Amino acid sequence: MTRIAVINPNMSVGFTEKVGAQARRIVAAGTEVMALNPQFGPASIEGYYDEAFASVGLLAAMRGLEADGASGGKISGYVVACFDDTGVDAARCLTKAPVMGLCEAALRFAAIVASRFAIVTPMAVSVRPLEHLVSKYGASSQCVVRAAGVRTLDFDGENADMAYLALKMSAENCLAEDGAEAIVLGCAGMTDIAERLQAELGVPVIDGVSAAVKLIEAMGMLGLQTSKAGAYASPPVKTYDGIFAAFAPVE
Questions:
Q1: In what order do the strands lie in the sheet with 183-185?
Q2: How confident is the model at residue 153, as a pLDDT?
Q3: CA 27/CA 210 separation, integer angstroms
Q4: Which parts of the chain are beta strand (E)?
Q5: How remote is the C-alpha of 116 from its chain's centroid?
Q6: In the structure, what pLDDT confidence band is assigned to residue 29 with cuts at 50, 70 and 90?
Q7: Looking at residues 72-84, what average pLDDT do you find?
């Protein structure tokens, strides 16, 4: 059986319920999905500061799942359900299972269906971090990043309609002014609006949650694992002090 752990590295339970529901809707019969939050971290991830703290909670949650897996409940792959790809590289050092972030997965999908595309993210503070990720994944010549000017948490609750309209307007501007041929949703909390936006815009709209889940599902079915031959090798055994003592690498 393929078992996918979808971890939302912030503390928004509403977002976690959204991404879990979407993941379960699109996986094949026989694929098991668990969706969870860490036990500690920021309410949302909006920029570098939040990302630093959220990474620790993500790794703590993964350590628990890896320990459980050693006793029988092995995880086939992990999805980090944040478009900042929070802690993904560190997570790949923690497990042999494949780990995928939303931004990387969405960009891989977008490049297949469009020659130029745009990421629309909620807040301006996230634009530069996402531009750095776009460069890291080799898509700078194809992708532009724009902000809708709303808070991440606006997509969950009474402000959801307002946030959707702001997102749609920003996406329309990308199509008209940036030459974008497809739109990438730059937040996990947008996963439930991808189909609606695609129908209204008339171009492909890529949801990172769906893209990451399907990639991880395929990798799990193929039995692919994270290479431990270089950058993603398990961290060397050493002492971690203070509040991080429990995170010390072990053999």
A1: 143-147, 117-121, 183-185, 205-207
A2: 84
A3: 9
A4: 2-7, 31-36, 77-80, 99-101, 117-121, 143-147, 183-185, 205-207
A5: 21
A6: very high
A7: 91
The token duo for 212 is: 């990451």
- Residue 151 has which token pair? 């808070």
| Cα(6)–Cα(212) distance, integer angstroms | 9
**Residues 37, 86: Cα–Cα separation, whole Å:** 13
Q: Which two tokens stand for residue 65?
A: 């799942």
pTM of the model: 0.94
d(CA 7, CA 16): 8
Question: Nearest to residue 148, comparing CAs of 130, 132, 135?
Answer: 130
DSSP 246: G
Q: Which two tokens stand for residue 142?
A: 């194809």
Residue with tokens 């889940």: 213
Interacting residues of 250 by C-beta distance below 8 A, sequence separation 6+? 237
Q: Are 107 and 139 in contact (CB under 8 A)?
A: yes
CA distance linking residue 45 with residue 43, whole number of Å: 7
> Cα 30 from chain centroid?
23
Cross-strand pairs, 205: 183
- Asked if the model's pLDDT at residue 245 lies above 60, the reply is yes
Cα–Cα distance, 52 to 57 (Å, whole number):
10
At 112, give phi and psi (nearest 5°): -80, -30
CA 10 to chain centre: 11
Secondary structure of residue 120 in the 3-state scheme: strand
